[in-house]
Amino acid sequence: MAEPVLDIRNLSVNYLTPRGTVKALRRINLQVPSAKVVGLVGESGCGKSTLISTVIRLMAENARVAAGEIRFTGKDMQQLSPRDLRAIRGRDMSMVFQDPMTALNPVFTVGRQMADIQYRDAVSRKEKLKRASDMLSLVGIPDAVSRLDNYPHHFSGGMRQRITIAMALLVQPKLLIADEPTTALDATLEVQIIRLLKALQADFQCAILFISHHLNVIAELCDFVGVMYAGELVEKGSVRDIFHRPGHPYTRALLECDPSVIAEPTRFLPTIPGEIPSLIDLPEGCIFHDRCPRAAQVCKKTPPPEVSLAEHHTVACHCLEV
Predict the structure, then answer these.
(1) What pTM was estimated for this model as a whole?
(2) What fold is seen in the domain 4-92+173-316?
């Protein structure tokens, strides 16, 4: 694996609420190598968006980093001043947000917004607009020069998502963070956006941290995958490891719940029995033991160690069956 652009070490994040402290992330270790795509997958509420907001330091007011560090190109993100952060965000690190319908400012033209994000570059506005139109053409926006004068409401959802991707890549970042960028799109547009991201990543050779709960999207786009459950990273490995040799019971259950693997017609979709535990009053032992079909007595009392199954493939589980 190449040297990581992003290196997350033993990260824990809490939210302070009137009901108590929500332990949203606990002991997260994750690396994003240069020129690779790393996916994060898990149920809603597992901590994926909290993790990326902590990485880019766009956290809620009640969020606190309880432990750990985040290193981006060797720099400790938690120790950077606001000025140093502004120098990184939007240049070395870009983000594509989840909802394309609200990601763009509705009162400014697309051309103005794409020119404004290049404010650090000492070039003429004409050159900035030229770069913007070239990037729009690259992401598949037809007649890009004339469309710079259009407002966001003149574009469809799929077009807007292409524009946000173009804006994120316009500065040629070292790391692109994509927070479920296809969730608001229909299935056909989702496929188009994933293929576009894959092609652009190959062209620009940037690292991508891609967040999704769609397993098929993760399998299509990513080189490595991290599986999150209730604030913990329970398994990580290559795409082949995760999809063909899953080690954690939760990973296996997620794959079995994928509708695309259902062989016969049925009125009922497969589900994982039980509920996600409270992140305020965490259970002892393995966080998944209440829902795990293989749980043993040790799982109820002792947190599982991280076990290496292969190069880059680790699982946090007491009862491995691989």
Answers:
(1) 0.89
(2) Rossmann fold (3.40.50)
